[in-house]
Amino acid sequence: MAHDPLNYAGTTVLITGASSGLGAEFASQFAARGADLVLVARREDRLTDLADRLEQNHGVSTTVVTADLGVPDAAASLVETLDERGLHVDSLINNAGFGMGGQFADEEPGRLSGMIDLNVGLLTDLTRLLLPQLVERSRRSGGPGVLLNIASTAAYQPTPGMAAYGATKAYVLSLTEALAYETKTSPLRVLALSPGPTKTEFFDVLGGGTDAAVGSFQTADQVVSLALQELDRKNPRPSIVSGRRNAVVAAIARLAPRRLTLALSGRISQ
């Protein structure tokens, strides 16, 4: 059933990891619906190019914040920057993150810690710092406010060969579903989005090409369009999986005995 698309004009959306992939696509689709944007990532040139294009195409206001979100206290520093610039956000898209593949015992410790800090630590800290503002502004304005966290189909079962990455995304899924319940009396829409393999830079960072991909590939446009369609619903679900086949596999993983799920996942990863 189709739902009327929400109009985000007059609201401000903060997107982390906005320089490419899903982050850039979220920026484009929110701008097309009238939202002003705060774009955060390390690559200033890409952010500036994206900001200029969205301002020209959609007439929205964009603010570029260049920051390494993987360093300690990155969330607090980002919120301090927002305060200094007088920026108040209505929506938060926690998109920044990366994956690692291979046997857990062989992972480089510093990179492993960096992934956990970004995928879990930053997302948790930034959500905690901004959630009161998101809830309050959604209540005061009556306009659409969103908290959207990027999980993964890897969140639905143990993932041998990507053990720590899957664990970080299981955390994101669990946290977001709990927050959806805790904020259910407010107008804020809270959603965990779990993409399967997506045509972005993810597998370049992961290493090994697309061999680690499990499930059907989608484009960033398909993934983000599905998320916004879900948010258009009067009562969005707390979590969704992008792609029909991916959703079926995730549902089976949740229902099947844990030992069976682990065995199947381990065979697929070999």
From TrEMBL:
InterPro entries reported for this sequence: NAD(P)-bd_dom_sf, Sc_DH/Rdtase_CS, SDR_fam
Keywords for the protein's UniProt record, in alphabetical order: Oxidoreductase
PROSITE patterns: ADH_SHORT (PS00061)
Classification via Pfam families: adh_short
Alphabetized GO MF terms: oxidoreductase activity
The UniProt record lists the keyword GTP-binding: no
Coiled-coil region list: none
Taxonomy, superkingdom: Bacteria
Assigned protein family: Belongs to the short-chain dehydrogenases/reductases (SDR) family.
Protein name: Short-chain dehydrogenase/reductase
